[in-house]
Amino acid sequence: QLSNTALPKLRIVAKTPSFITASYARANNVRNTLIQATITVPDGEYPQSPPIINVDLKLKGLKKKLESAMTQESMQLKGQYGQIIAAFRCLVQFIDTNKFLPCWRELKDCTDMVQSLNEKNQHSNNKYNTSNNNKSTVSCNELTGKIRLKLCHNRYHYSCSIQIHDAYPSTTTIAEWGKACVLKMIGTNLPPKIENMMSTQAQDLVRKMQDGMSYDDAFNASNPIREPKDFR
Prior knowledge:
This protein is α+β, with helices and mostly antiparallel strands. About 35% of the residues lie in helices and about 20% in strands. The longest helix has 19 residues, at about 105-120. It is elongated, with a radius of gyration of 22 Å.
Protein backbone atom coordinates (compact mmCIF):
# COMPACT_ATOMS: atom_id res chain seq x y z
CA GLN A 1 0.00 0.00 0.00
CA LEU A 2 2.92 2.37 0.78
CA SER A 3 4.44 1.80 -2.66
CA ASN A 4 1.23 1.91 -4.66
CA THR A 5 -0.38 4.98 -3.12
CA ALA A 6 1.71 7.50 -1.21
CA LEU A 7 5.02 6.92 -3.01
CA PRO A 8 4.48 4.98 -6.24
CA LYS A 9 8.13 5.20 -7.37
CA LEU A 10 9.46 3.67 -4.16
CA ARG A 11 10.63 0.06 -4.55
CA ILE A 12 9.79 -2.23 -1.63
CA VAL A 13 12.73 -4.58 -1.04
CA ALA A 14 11.47 -6.40 2.08
CA LYS A 15 8.53 -6.04 4.42
CA THR A 16 7.46 -7.66 7.69
CA PRO A 17 5.14 -6.55 10.52
CA SER A 18 8.14 -5.01 12.31
CA PHE A 19 10.18 -3.39 9.53
CA ILE A 20 10.13 -2.24 5.92
CA THR A 21 13.09 -1.85 3.56
CA ALA A 22 12.71 0.25 0.43
CA SER A 23 14.95 1.87 -2.17
CA TYR A 24 14.71 4.79 -4.54
CA ALA A 25 16.83 6.39 -7.28
CA ARG A 26 16.55 9.28 -9.73
CA ALA A 27 15.33 8.00 -13.09
CA ASN A 28 18.08 9.80 -15.03
CA ASN A 29 20.93 8.49 -12.84
CA VAL A 30 19.87 5.24 -11.19
CA ARG A 31 23.36 3.81 -10.71
CA ASN A 32 24.72 6.77 -8.73
CA THR A 33 21.64 7.88 -6.80
CA LEU A 34 20.19 4.57 -5.57
CA ILE A 35 19.74 4.58 -1.79
CA GLN A 36 18.15 1.94 0.40
CA ALA A 37 16.69 2.54 3.85
CA THR A 38 15.14 0.35 6.52
CA ILE A 39 12.52 1.62 8.96
CA THR A 40 11.86 -0.47 12.05
CA VAL A 41 8.84 0.09 14.28
CA PRO A 42 9.17 -0.54 18.05
CA ASP A 43 7.24 -3.69 18.88
CA GLY A 44 3.80 -2.75 20.18
CA GLU A 45 4.77 0.91 20.72
CA TYR A 46 4.16 2.51 17.31
CA PRO A 47 3.01 5.22 16.69
CA GLN A 48 3.61 6.52 20.23
CA SER A 49 7.31 5.65 19.91
CA PRO A 50 9.05 6.91 16.73
CA PRO A 51 10.35 4.41 14.15
CA ILE A 52 14.05 3.61 13.94
CA ILE A 53 15.64 4.65 10.64
CA ASN A 54 18.75 3.14 9.10
CA VAL A 55 20.09 4.30 5.73
CA ASP A 56 22.36 1.85 3.94
CA LEU A 57 25.29 4.10 3.00
CA LYS A 58 29.06 3.83 3.48
CA LEU A 59 29.54 7.60 3.40
CA LYS A 60 29.17 8.44 7.09
CA GLY A 61 28.46 12.15 6.60
CA LEU A 62 25.74 11.55 4.01
CA LYS A 63 24.28 8.68 6.03
CA LYS A 64 24.03 10.84 9.15
CA LYS A 65 22.56 13.78 7.22
CA LEU A 66 19.85 11.68 5.57
CA GLU A 67 18.94 9.70 8.70
CA SER A 68 18.61 12.95 10.63
CA ALA A 69 16.38 14.50 7.96
CA MET A 70 14.14 11.41 7.76
CA THR A 71 13.87 11.23 11.56
CA GLN A 72 12.91 14.89 11.81
CA GLU A 73 10.16 14.40 9.23
CA SER A 74 8.73 11.38 11.04
CA MET A 75 8.86 13.22 14.38
CA GLN A 76 6.50 15.84 12.95
CA LEU A 77 3.81 13.17 13.26
CA LYS A 78 4.86 11.80 16.64
CA GLY A 79 2.00 9.84 18.20
CA GLN A 80 0.22 9.58 14.83
CA TYR A 81 0.22 7.08 12.01
CA GLY A 82 1.94 8.18 8.81
CA GLN A 83 5.45 8.57 10.27
CA ILE A 84 6.84 5.87 7.97
CA ILE A 85 5.36 7.48 4.87
CA ALA A 86 6.75 10.87 5.94
CA ALA A 87 10.23 9.41 6.40
CA PHE A 88 10.27 7.69 3.01
CA ARG A 89 8.83 10.81 1.35
CA CYS A 90 11.82 12.69 2.77
CA LEU A 91 14.16 10.08 1.23
CA VAL A 92 12.54 10.49 -2.20
CA GLN A 93 12.66 14.30 -2.01
CA PHE A 94 16.31 14.29 -0.92
CA ILE A 95 17.34 12.07 -3.85
CA ASP A 96 15.28 14.05 -6.35
CA THR A 97 16.54 17.48 -5.28
CA ASN A 98 20.13 17.02 -4.07
CA LYS A 99 22.24 17.39 -7.20
CA PHE A 100 25.48 16.49 -5.40
CA LEU A 101 24.39 12.99 -4.46
CA PRO A 102 26.46 11.29 -7.21
CA CYS A 103 29.64 13.18 -6.23
CA TRP A 104 29.29 13.51 -2.45
CA ARG A 105 32.73 12.04 -1.68
CA GLU A 106 34.42 14.20 -4.32
CA LEU A 107 32.77 17.29 -2.86
CA LYS A 108 34.15 16.40 0.57
CA ASP A 109 37.62 15.98 -0.96
CA CYS A 110 37.25 19.39 -2.63
CA THR A 111 36.43 21.16 0.65
CA ASP A 112 39.35 19.37 2.33
CA MET A 113 41.65 20.52 -0.47
CA VAL A 114 40.57 24.15 -0.04
CA GLN A 115 41.09 23.95 3.72
CA SER A 116 44.54 22.43 3.22
CA LEU A 117 45.49 25.21 0.79
CA ASN A 118 44.44 27.88 3.31
CA GLU A 119 46.44 26.19 6.06
CA LYS A 120 49.48 26.06 3.79
CA ASN A 121 49.15 29.74 2.92
CA GLN A 122 48.61 30.68 6.56
CA HIS A 123 52.02 29.32 7.49
CA SER A 124 53.67 31.21 4.66
CA ASN A 125 55.46 34.46 5.37
CA ASN A 126 54.24 35.98 2.12
CA LYS A 127 52.40 39.27 2.73
CA TYR A 128 49.63 38.31 0.29
CA ASN A 129 48.55 35.39 2.47
CA THR A 130 47.74 37.39 5.61
CA SER A 131 44.52 38.98 4.36
CA ASN A 132 41.13 37.34 4.89
CA ASN A 133 40.21 38.45 1.37
CA ASN A 134 42.97 36.25 0.02
CA LYS A 135 41.59 32.97 1.33
CA SER A 136 40.41 30.13 -0.88
CA THR A 137 36.71 29.35 -0.53
CA VAL A 138 34.17 26.85 -1.81
CA SER A 139 30.38 27.08 -1.60
CA CYS A 140 27.78 24.62 -2.86
CA ASN A 141 24.10 24.85 -3.75
CA GLU A 142 22.55 21.37 -3.41
CA LEU A 143 19.35 22.34 -5.25
CA THR A 144 21.02 23.78 -8.36
CA GLY A 145 24.13 21.59 -8.39
CA LYS A 146 26.42 24.59 -8.68
CA ILE A 147 29.79 24.95 -6.95
CA ARG A 148 31.53 28.29 -6.56
CA LEU A 149 35.27 27.96 -6.10
CA LYS A 150 37.89 30.60 -5.34
CA LEU A 151 41.55 29.57 -5.24
CA CYS A 152 44.18 31.92 -3.86
CA HIS A 153 47.95 31.61 -3.59
CA ASN A 154 50.24 34.54 -2.93
CA ARG A 155 49.19 37.36 -5.24
CA TYR A 156 47.21 35.16 -7.62
CA HIS A 157 43.55 34.24 -7.48
CA TYR A 158 41.17 32.27 -9.71
CA SER A 159 37.39 32.10 -9.25
CA CYS A 160 35.03 29.84 -11.16
CA SER A 161 31.68 28.08 -11.03
CA ILE A 162 31.23 24.37 -11.67
CA GLN A 163 27.82 23.07 -12.76
CA ILE A 164 27.18 19.38 -12.04
CA HIS A 165 25.06 17.48 -14.56
CA ASP A 166 22.08 15.48 -13.26
CA ALA A 167 23.57 12.31 -14.74
CA TYR A 168 27.08 12.86 -13.29
CA PRO A 169 29.63 11.36 -13.88
CA SER A 170 28.05 10.98 -17.32
CA THR A 171 25.47 12.89 -19.37
CA THR A 172 22.07 12.00 -20.80
CA THR A 173 22.60 13.00 -24.44
CA ILE A 174 25.40 12.76 -27.00
CA ALA A 175 25.29 16.54 -27.45
CA GLU A 176 26.22 16.97 -23.78
CA TRP A 177 29.09 14.46 -23.89
CA GLY A 178 32.17 15.77 -22.14
CA LYS A 179 30.10 18.14 -20.02
CA ALA A 180 29.38 16.01 -16.94
CA CYS A 181 30.49 19.10 -15.08
CA VAL A 182 30.96 22.48 -16.73
CA LEU A 183 33.54 24.99 -15.50
CA LYS A 184 33.01 28.71 -16.07
CA MET A 185 35.66 31.24 -15.13
CA ILE A 186 34.27 34.15 -13.05
CA GLY A 187 37.37 36.22 -12.34
CA THR A 188 41.14 36.00 -12.06
CA ASN A 189 44.29 38.12 -12.11
CA LEU A 190 46.26 35.48 -14.00
CA PRO A 191 47.49 36.47 -17.48
CA PRO A 192 44.76 35.75 -20.08
CA LYS A 193 46.84 33.10 -21.83
CA ILE A 194 47.45 31.20 -18.58
CA GLU A 195 43.79 31.47 -17.55
CA ASN A 196 42.63 30.14 -20.92
CA MET A 197 45.07 27.23 -20.78
CA MET A 198 43.99 26.27 -17.26
CA SER A 199 40.24 26.51 -17.96
CA THR A 200 40.57 24.57 -21.22
CA GLN A 201 42.67 21.88 -19.59
CA ALA A 202 40.15 21.48 -16.75
CA GLN A 203 37.26 20.90 -19.18
CA ASP A 204 39.44 18.54 -21.25
CA LEU A 205 40.05 16.48 -18.10
CA VAL A 206 36.30 16.10 -17.64
CA ARG A 207 35.89 14.87 -21.22
CA LYS A 208 38.74 12.37 -20.98
CA MET A 209 37.48 10.98 -17.68
CA GLN A 210 33.95 10.62 -19.06
CA ASP A 211 35.54 8.64 -21.89
CA GLY A 212 36.78 6.23 -19.23
CA MET A 213 40.31 7.41 -18.45
CA SER A 214 41.53 7.53 -14.86
CA TYR A 215 42.34 10.94 -13.38
CA ASP A 216 46.12 10.32 -13.49
CA ASP A 217 46.04 9.18 -17.13
CA ALA A 218 43.76 12.05 -18.14
CA PHE A 219 45.94 14.58 -16.33
CA ASN A 220 49.16 13.32 -17.91
CA ALA A 221 47.53 13.26 -21.36
CA SER A 222 46.40 16.87 -20.99
CA ASN A 223 49.92 18.30 -21.05
CA PRO A 224 49.56 19.80 -17.55
CA ILE A 225 50.73 23.36 -17.11
CA ARG A 226 53.82 23.74 -15.00
CA GLU A 227 54.06 26.31 -12.25
CA PRO A 228 55.57 29.61 -13.45
CA LYS A 229 59.06 30.33 -12.09
CA ASP A 230 57.91 33.54 -10.38
CA PHE A 231 54.75 31.91 -8.91
CA ARG A 232 56.13 31.96 -5.38
